[in-house]
Amino acid sequence: MSKWKAHLDGKEHQEKVSKLIDSRMDTLELYKEYTEKLKQVYSVKESELNGLWYNTMHKRFSELDCFEEYVEVYHRLSGASHVTAEDTMASLMSSQLPEEAKVLIEHESNSYSIMMSRVVISSFLDAVTWFAIRNGLEDVDKLERMLELKKIIGRAVDEIASDAGVPAANEEEKIARFEALKSRLGVSF
Predict the structure, then answer these.
(1) For labelling, which of 11, 39, 43, 81 has a CA lying 20 to 30 Å from the CA of 182?
(2) Contact partners, residue 146, CB within 8 Å, separation at least 6
């Protein structure tokens, strides 16, 4: 942050942006204080921090034996949330397609967003459940309810997966899916 502030020297907006940077620094200081309290409460040593919270999401997922989830979910969500030149080109190219094709593309895009939201909710349930167990939740009925919610979300992910662009097992299934989708959406070309 100090490099950023130094970069502002002599700029017209220096004062305004410097205040924003200072505000951000204050917030980070609060995070630091909170982290220090957590380390004390849970008896965490400084040397253990990287093993508890790695700097990269890739390493965090890998350490949890969730590499597939990283590639299939986090990496794709991250890519989907950062528009690239490739995304811009794909959008420009699809703008020239017939209206029916645009309907199919929009449907897949929306289905993908819905599916990814469901996957994220499932991961959130995992985190909440582990946090609750770690903090003393032993009520089997409540834990089974969390598991049932996870199963419901899992079925909801499976239901929308083909519309979201999850690859088909083979060419025959791919064609059948495409024809069924066109029929459901009332699109023909």
Answers:
(1) 81
(2) 125, 128, 129, 132
| Per-residue pLDDT tens digits for 81-91 | 777 787 788 88
Residues, the chain: 189
Report yes or no: 67 and 73 within 8 Å, Cβ to Cβ.
no
pTM of the model: 0.62
Q: What is each CA distance from 78 to 57, 74, 81, 116, in whole angstroms? A: 11, 6, 5, 11
* Dmax (CA) of the chain: 65
Burial of residue 136 (CB within 10 Å: 0-12, 13-18, 19+) is: exposed
